[in-house]
Write a structure and sequence with these properties.
180 residues, 3-stranded parallel sheet, alpha/beta, 44% helix, 4-stranded parallel sheet, 13% strand
Length: 180
C-alpha cells in the first residue's frame, strides 16, 4: 500500500494511523522528510510492536534516543554535517566557512551539529543565511555571503533551492565551493 504524505506532518499522522489501524499493515517503510517522521514518532512510541523503517529522513532526533521499533538506516544529519565540515576544512587554508540553509527542522538538524563541529575546531561561521523551501531567488542571501568572503559554503538545501543557490552564486561571482 502507498500513502502520499506530501511531506506534511498532518497528512503523515493520518496516513500512518490509517495504515496501522484500518489497513492493518505489519510495518511501514517510509518517511522522506524529517519533520513528518518526528510528527509520527509519538504514535510509534505508543505501538512499540510496530516496526517503522525510515526511507530517507535523516534527522538525528528520529533515532536518538533509540526506540526499539524505529530503524534508521540512513546517515543521520549529525553525521552528514560533521562530514560537510571535515570536507570544507580539507581545502588548504580554509578557515572562513559560511552556511546557507533551510530554517525548517531538516535544516536545523544539520546546522546544530555543523556549528558544534566548527566550534570544536575554533571556527565561527562568517555568515549564516536562510533560503526557504520554494524560493526562486537567492539574491539577498548571495549578496550577504559574497560580502563575507567565505572559503567554503555549507549548502544545507533541498535540490530545487540548491539549484537556485548555485545559479545565483555563479551570477554574483561567488567562487567558494559549495559543500552539500
Amino acid at each position: 500500500l502507498v500513502e502520499d504524505d506530501a511531506c506534511d506532518p498532518n497528512k503523515t499522522i493520518a496516513a500512518t494511523k490509517k495504515l496501522m489501524s484500518q489497513d492493518k499493515v505489519f510495518m511501514i517503510h517510509g518517511g522522506w522528510c524529517s519533520g513528518t517522521v518526528m510528527a509520527i514518532k509519538p504514535e510509534l512510541q505508543r505501538h512499540p510492536e510496530f516496526p517503522y523503517m525510515v526511507l530517507g529522513a535523516a534527522s538525528t532526533a528520529i533515532s536518538t534516543p533509540v526506540q526499539t521499533n524505529i530503524f534508521h538506516p540512513v546517515a543521520t544529519t549529525a553525521t552528514v554535517a560533521r562530514s560537510m565540515v571535515d570536507f570544507a576544512l580539507s581545502k588548504p587554508g580554509a578557515k572562513r566557512i559560511a552556511i546557507i540553509s533551510h530554517s525548517d527542522e531538516w535544516g536545523k538538524s544539520h546546522i546544530e551539529p555543523a556549528l558544534a563541529e566548527l566550534k570544536a575546531r575554533g571556527i565561527e561561521p562568517v555568515e549564516t543565511a536562510y533560503l526557504e523551501r520554494g524560493s526562486t531567488d537567492a539574491t539577498s542571501q548571495l549578496l550577504r555571503l559574497r560580502a563575507a568572503k567565505p572559503d567554503a559554503v555549507l549548502a544545507i538545501l533541498y535540490p530545487p533551492e540548491l539549484t537556485i543557490y548555485l545559479r545565483d552564486a555563479n551570477k554574483y561571482g561567488i567562487k567558494a565551493p559549495a559543500i552539500t
